[in-house]
Design a protein that fits this description.
The chain is of the alpha+beta class. It has a single domain, classed as Alpha-D-Glucose-1,6-Bisphosphate, Chain A, domain 4 (2-Layer Sandwich), CATH 3.30.530.20. It contains four helices and seven strands; from the N terminus they run E-H-H-E-E-E-E-E-E-H-H. Strands 1-7-6-5-4-3-2 form a seven-stranded antiparallel sheet. The chain starts with a strand and ends with a helix.
Amino acid sequence: MVRYYFVKRGFVMAPIDVVWTEIMDIKSYPIWWFNVKSAEIKGTESKLGVGSTIDFELKSVLPYTFQYTIEIKEFKKPYLVKVKSFGDLMGSGKLILKQKNDGTALKCYWDVKSSSWIVNLVSKLYFVKSLLKNNHERVIDKAFSILKARIEYCMEDLVEIKM
């Protein structure tokens, strides 16, 4: 299996609770995160917490859609969520939020292996593994840019309303 390890850092000009709430709104991902075809919280509990599972379908640069499930292993609102991933992407992830001055710093870790035989086969070609890695970074960068814009735009509206 081919292993991928990613770290994404970012900063949003909004309070930590606002950023946390937006990130935990999993059901909205397919609306604004173009690579997410579906994101479905499993079970009857709509609030996320330890033990919650979410099924994802994610489009890639290859003519392939990754299907995987994450299970929340640790959940400390609004600072930390750790997950395990199963399916086409097997491994773990961690999201850390920290209030800094007037905004929120984010750090996301993603350490996964592909369990897809087709992805593993074509990934033996150096340019394909590099293509997948670059695709992931573009997908995450784009998602973060949209998330940041959504939150900061809403914060601007709130400031205008208060004035």
